[in-house]
Write a structure and sequence with these properties.
Layout (H helix, E strand, L loop, with lengths): L3 H11 L2 H6 L2 E11 L25 H9 L10 H6 L1 H10 L7 E2 L18 E2 L8 H8 L4 E12 L9 E8 L39 E12 L1 E21 L8 E20 L4 E5 L3 E9 L3 H15 L1
Antiparallel strand pairs: 1-4, 1-10, 2-5, 3-4, 5-6, 6-7, 7-8, 9-10
Length: 315
Amino acid sequence: MLRQPLFIIALLFSSNSAFAQEERWFEVEVYLFERNNSLSQEQAPKYVPAQSRKKAVDLITPIFSTSITGSSLDPQGCSSHDWATNADTCNQEFTSSQVNHLANIPWSIAAPTEQYGQPGGPAVLLSNEQNQFADIISKLSREKGNKSLLHMTWQQSMLPRHRAMPVKLFSGQDYSDRFELNGQSVTPQETSSDIPQFDFLGSSFSLNDDKPVWELDGTLNIYLDHYLYVETALNLREEGTKVLEVMSRDADSDEGSRLTTPFLYAHLMKQNRRLRSDQIHYFDHPRMGMILQIRKMQQPLDRIEEESTQLITEQ
């Protein structure tokens, strides 16, 4: 007997094949690692870059929210498709559910089973079996001072820049119990009564609002404009201290005080490059490196038509 669900899907997509055939799907694999070098905190950025407010596809939260609760957040819980197409609603549900996120996201992120993109569908996270960077990761991991930060693979339809939606990446420990997104310490520091209390970094920086502050986070935006382009906006956070100059309350005194306070530095990798498909590319930064490959793949519509034809032939 013919597998009805697959046959029906094939019929539905064949009626809309003109749109589906215009899609150009690619497979993306990314590996980020920390590099241990001599860059000191004195050379680190003196401020934390503002978080992007642009909507992003979140392929990671659905995996670990399920791990936390043992089931979906609710009977109609958000899938990866929901996060990709209606992230605002999913964020609201995730917040209202009062589910505690993990304190540490592992560097290797994958779907539990093999997955494939659907015509007209959102980006989809792939399984470990669909990864191809095993040898590269093994070689880099053996180099002294390297630490794996994130590895994941997904399939997505490539769109023009004005329509492309970046993919949200994050991993590592969550610093939100000690620091805010702007790098300031959550716990007020004990200071002398002679030192005035104010926001040293200015009010233009947003607080964390109980949101996680991941060791690695940011976005990877890939778009198609005759060629493939990649935009990175990734922060690698490092716990340290910051020395602040505080002016004396005495108007007649030119002397000030120095205050040492905990601070969460953020090293930003921000690049925009044109890439060739199927080639392995390296993105360099003083504190981290990124290996990226955008691979050609069988288009989702072709895969469904091929499977449907095979099923019909077997009958």
